[in-house]
Design the sequence.
């Protein structure tokens, strides 16, 4: 069979454009002994991928020009010469940005019985959901009755952060970038949600959290982080999860000018990525599948159809095109 | 008796000057029933006091114009109508910046048998020493064999940080502001010490810590913090203790422009003040008196004589006039 894939054509400068990507078609032969052929059902685009488009050392190596991009995907085994991976089984894999591929099984994770649509395993029950879960509960050490502020609250991670905080009996304030997103956050049970385009961030946060913020879950960086520091309660925690406001910056962006407030208040700012907490994967999946199937955690997806739309979906992450998880469907 | 005291005459703008302070003389009557008269032997000037000279909410209330300043001091009971405080006893108190005062005993802490000169209880065995101790061991969670970088390393806190790290079997790199200070740090056993005026901070840190830094103890903020972040190892810790480079700034100073590196590296930046760890005071004193009397921890003092010299001593903290602890002797 053949597979279309998306390759990095040039390293984006500032905001990525469609011209930084190209579509190519490759042959996927019948699987050899011990191999399987995986047809991807859907793939993920995530903000962290922007960092891999720079040619620099980071926690994941950079993407290479002329090579297919990679990322999370859910696929189905369509041909198998490997008894561990029977035909028809769903597998989580890191070979997104392409329709199909062969594998000897390394890097494939059997999903077992799906308790939700396949795409949920790229979102609420997948990497973004687990990022929210470990960031809030482990890094943020959230305690019952505390007040949480989350930026990028209508995103794949932020929307889960807010809902977990509500399950844990907390007050939740969120920021997002449109009236529709704010309305959805209120449906999800957020106590206060505001559009960060309108007015002063500190005033908005204080309105939602008049007694201050115990945990600020930072998806945005920049102005949001600085404003949140102004509003923290003593011994508050700030999980640093992402800084989407800065990923396309072409010059270094100054950090918060009020970091010295952390001294007297005893604040903790702690960066993390989800793979630092892989030991919690089973516990996360059990909790989150329970919350999703019971309706305690809801999720939304913004979907694009066809691998050729993946660059557009990816760019949309930085323009606010998504509410909830951005998904590219590859086969129906 | 009479006591000279230093009052805040005007709130400093930028670097404080002698004109921001004034000397006044007050009467100290014989102690009333339950009271004692304390004559201060020596007093402390500390960088954190600069923050109290601004009229703003902080973790300690601001100093008031026309009133005597306050701060750590060691005094001797010279008259007593309070059986808890016999004449001749040494007491730690927060009524520095004056020669003598009366007290009903609140806020006086009996020092018992002194194992070192009185001034050491304002330095290595006092608040700065305990700041180093809790910051490095509790906030920084230092483990044996790790690499520590400390800025302001020839100061009252920094010099103790480095020596505790050596006791704990760690590699230690320090920055300071003169050749004399660097020479002293090497005497203290620092593995590498450099003058931050010369050349590139990142290059200096990398020279001393080619495999990266596990704990950066930040006394300085600004460029030092940014450079240290560039050099941190995965899961490194950054106790935020002070930001002396920024205390006299008249405009907000941008924070580090590389804070997003904390995400992939899993770095923790945690602010603290020593009083968050008062529960460790006894353990600290026992450990530190042991290290000081055995010679494992050495300290230096820069001393001024006479309460009228206290403003000059205080200003000297920001011009690098001190090696080790800055002390003002009030009676010999």
Sequence:
């Amino acid at each position: 069979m053949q597979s279309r894939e998306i390759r990095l054509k040039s390293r984006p400068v500032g905001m990525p454009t469609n011209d930084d990507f190209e579509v190519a078609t490759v042959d996927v032969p019948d699987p050899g002994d011990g191999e399987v052929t995986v047809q991807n059902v859907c793939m993920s685009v995530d903000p962290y991928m922007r960092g891999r488009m720079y040619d620099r050392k980071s926690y994941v190596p950079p993407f290479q020009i002329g090579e297919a991009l990679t990322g999370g995907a859910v696929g189905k085994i369509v041909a198998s010469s490997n008894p561990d991976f029977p035909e028809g089984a769903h597998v989580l894999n890191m070979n997104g940005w392409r329709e199909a591929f062969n594998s000897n099984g390394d890097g494939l994770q059997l999903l077992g019985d799906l308790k939700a649509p396949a795409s949920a395993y790229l979102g609420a029950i997948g990497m973004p959901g687990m990022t929210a879960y470990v960031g809030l509960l482990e890094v943020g050490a959230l305690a019952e009755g505390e007040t949480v502020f989350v930026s990028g609250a209508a995103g794949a991670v932020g929307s889960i952060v807010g809902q977990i905080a509500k399950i844990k009996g907390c007050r939740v304030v969120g920021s997002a970038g449109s009236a529709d997103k704010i309305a959805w956050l209120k449906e999800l049970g957020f106590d206060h949600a505001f559009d960060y385009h309108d007015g002063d961030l500190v005033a908005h946060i204080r309105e939602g959290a008049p007694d201050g913020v115990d945990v600020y879950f930072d998806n945005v960086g920049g102005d949001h982080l600085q404003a949140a520091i102004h509003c923290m309660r003593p011994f508050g925690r700030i999980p640093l999860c992402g800084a989407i406001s800065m990923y396309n910056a072409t010059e270094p962006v100054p950090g918060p000018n009020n970091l010295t407030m952390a001294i007297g208040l005893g604040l903790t700012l702690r960066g993390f990525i989800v793979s630092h907490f892989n030991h919690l994967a089973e516990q996360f999946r059990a909790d989150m599948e329970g919350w999703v199937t019971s309706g305690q955690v809801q999720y939304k997806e913004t979907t694009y159809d066809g691998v050729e739309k993946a660059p557009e979906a990816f760019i949309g992450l930085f323009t606010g095109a998504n509410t909830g998880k951005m998904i590219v469907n590859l086969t129906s």
